Amino acid sequence: MSMEKESVNILSAKQISIQAPLSEEWMDNPLNYSEDYVRAVDPDFKQFISAGDARRMGKLLKRALATSLSALQEGGIDNPDAIITGTGFGSIENTELFLDALVREGEQLLKPTQFMQSTHNTASSLIGIHTRCHGYNSTYSQKGFSFDSALYDAWMQFRIGRIKSALVGSHDEMSPVFSGFVRKAGHVKEGEICSEAAVSVLLAESGNAYCTLDGVRLLDTPSSDTLKEVLADMTDGGIDAVMTGKSGNSENDSWYGFLDTLLQGVPQLRYKPLFGVNFSSSATGFYAAACCLRKGSVPAVLSESGKGVECSKGILVVNVVEGRHYSFSLLKPVCGK
Amino acid sequence: MPERSVLITGCGIVSAIGLDCGQVLDSLLKVRTGVGPLKYLKTEHTEFPVGEVKLSDEEMERIMGIAPGTPTTRTALMGMIALHEALGEAKLSREDLKECGFVNGTTVGGMDKSEQYYLDFIENDSRNAYIGTHDCGSCSEMIADRFGRFKMITTISTACSSAANAIEMAADMIRLGEADIVVAGGSECITKFHLNGFNSLMILDHNQCRPFDAERAGLNLGEGAAFVVLEESGHAASRGVKVLARLSGYGNACDAFHQTASSPDGEGAYLAMSKALNEAGLKPQDIDYVNAHGTGTPNNDESESQAMKRLFGSSMPPVSSTKSMTGHTTSASGAIETVICILALRNGFIPVNYAFEHPMENGIVPNMDLNKGCRLRHVLCNSFGFGGNDSSLVISAAE
Amino acid sequence: MEEMILKLKQEIIEVLNLEDIKPEDIDNDAPLFGEGLGLDSIDALELIVLMEKNYGIKLQDPAKGKEIFKSINVMADYIQKNRTR
């Protein structure tokens, strides 16, 4: 059954990141940074959230809601059948405030609002509450593999026939204190920009699409034979390019070395120099690939060779986390079907 | 689509009422609560009774053969002990795991160490190894890696329904042929962070909790871990492994009401239970027992009662909340209670809702008699999380 | 009392992050929850923390908050009578 070729439409994809928010401006005029820790560029949230509603939301929740509502609006769906979210750290700013007060001031007079937001599923449930969606609702938290896990779940929900539409997102914010922690832990490496990202993608069985999603695979520590098999299976219809999580850091980039031999000659793309690195960065890669297929071409700024690529067959998005978690998502253009 | 049915061929548990299935069964049959005064967690809030796992971190390290000083967390250690039991029962070797999925549910992850070393993280480099154990995903990796490398790993974090959702995702993977075996469950330790968080919400009972009692005054925080081995029926038959139970249906729904409160009519809970029954192809009257979410907070038990009354009407099956004995094991509770349901199915009894005395107005009256020797066919297990992440599993007797 | 009411309003605005609201916008007799300011159960918990932190009043039962937080006047009156700092 896993061999059946199935496909889901990607109706819209929205981001708030270190590039211009809720726009594809980065394709032509990317923002460049020399700092190694950059916070997201926020849009005016008032167009999405009233001041009354926003007063208890940290940055992550506001961004999650804004990208979600924006994706739903463009896709023309008010009530998705499923809301599935990834986040590595959840609302880390409020978590930090609660933790800091607990450690420095002791176990009295701690704030319930901060605790409430420390729970990772607040974004997914906030979107559920805001859109009054009683359907399937879940949250994944597996470091930089969280979006990939959420997407995989959505893919399964469609295949099992439980849903006709899904809002899939991944959201991570980064406080100054935790930006130091993630460096120390090696989650963000030398030469990488420690950043923030909120991405929402609307998937549906039908509707006007950017492109289609044609497969999602997750693996832990695959053998080279397994990698060969999976790549052969996922690229048997041909692809225009492979979207990698290469960042310029040599340890990180070495995890993608298998692509040089197994997908020899296929142009390699990279999004991390543009969007930075955080636990939701694989979602920015997926988003970027969807934007390229919608446009019909990959801008030079994404390409490793510095040359643009025409899209007619599809893009394979590959994410490797800590050299062990591998995800593969295949996106295809609508007209190429 | 050809229907692939999902069996349970292994389970493991660590909780306040026992460190393996045998001990937990014994406590359930003797109606022995694991809730009591704080012993292991160092906190100012000694006024709150808790359901602690009766082992120190060092004792758990010794059980798992982990060298002292190795960076690990209490959540990971409890998870390892429970996973060890589950894999052993299902007769899965290190080599077998390469073809199995692993889905863990947790929320606090490594917060026990983060709250201990937070200032070190900021001020010096002495505890940097523990930064890497802070997040939920690293906790799942530590648990899994102790036994080998799985085919894939991920972590679900939907607060108190995390483990239930992990089991649902695992079952979907099996039904779709993504794997023949997926091990799923959850783990969560008590931390100062969690205890203070629930205290800030003013939903901790200063006494032994009393789910569904008119005088209930909140929950007792618990901790623990549990995992179940889910296996496709044909695969289990070919391995010749013992079948413990069947996961016949499950449902996930969102209450879409409030971040920390359940709706008065329990819409999300009702939807989750209905979906689970639908997927199992069962009617409400087919359910022989409900292991309720039953936290003991005024809000949950009221809302869950309404949802159950709506679903079952006049044919209300026996209901109990085993959180009255384990404490609320938060992210792990869905798996801990799944294992408790399996024990009930296999041993023919209905767990007691410990400490219940006074029926609440318009509420359900929970089960207070073990009904030893009864034959259970289908049981429903509820797990509801903050944000209205409501999930329900139907677990059926092995045929 | 006037002064205390103004101070209390400022504290509430700050702790509940009521960005667009000024002290004069809050009617001393209007309900804080539901209709009035539209506050909810989490806000009530935040106000309980505020009362303990700023006025040394420890409230054990969250249900009691419902009566105390009826309006600014009722809340100020309760604080006046029970404050320990």
Element layout with pairings:
The complex is a heterotrimer of chains A (337), B (399) and C (85).
Chain A lengths: L7 E9 L34 H4 L4 H17 L6 E5 L5 H14 L6 H7 L3 H10 L4 E5 L5 H14 L5 E8 L3 H10 L11 E8 L6 E10 L3 H11 L6 E4 L5 H5 L2 H6 L5 E3 L1 H4 L5 H15 L1 E2 L10 E2 L4 E7 L3 E8 L5
Parallel strand pairs in A: 2-3, 2-4, 7-8, 7-11
Antiparallel strand pairs in A: 1-5, 1-6, 4-5, 6-12, 9-10, 11-12
Helix pairs in contact in A: 2-5, 3-4
Chain B lengths: L5 E10 L5 H10 L26 H8 L9 H16 L4 H4 L2 E6 L5 H13 L12 H10 L6 E5 L5 H14 L5 E8 L3 H9 L23 E9 H7 L5 E10 L12 H14 L8 E3 L6 H15 L6 E2 L2 H4 L6 H15 L30 E8 L3 E9 L2
Parallel strand pairs in B: 2-3, 2-4, 7-8, 7-9
Antiparallel strand pairs in B: 1-5, 1-6, 4-5, 6-10, 9-10
Chain C lengths: L1 H14 L25 H15 L6 H7 L3 H11 L3
Question: Which features characterize this protein?
Answer:
heterotrimer; B: 399 residues; alpha/beta; Peroxisomal Thiolase, Chain A, domain 1; ten-stranded mixed sheet; 10 strands; C: 85 residues; Non-ribosomal Peptide Synthetase Peptidyl Carrier Protein, Chain A; 4 helices; 0% strand; globular
> Quick one: CATH class of the largest domain in chain B?
Alpha Beta
Strand order of the largest sheet of chain B: 3-2-4-5-1-6-10-9-7-8
SSE order of chain B in H/E notation?
EHHHHEHHEHEHEHEHEHEHHEE
The structural class of chain C is mainly alpha
Q: How far apart are the first and last residues' alpha carbons of chain B, in Å?
A: 23 Å
Please give the radius of gyration of chain C in angstroms.
12 Å
- The outline of chain C comes out as globular
Q: Remind me, CATH topology of chain C? A: Non-ribosomal Peptide Synthetase Peptidyl Carrier Protein, Chain A
Count of runs of 4 or more consecutive helical residues of chain B? 13
Alpha carbon gyration radius of chain B: 19 Å
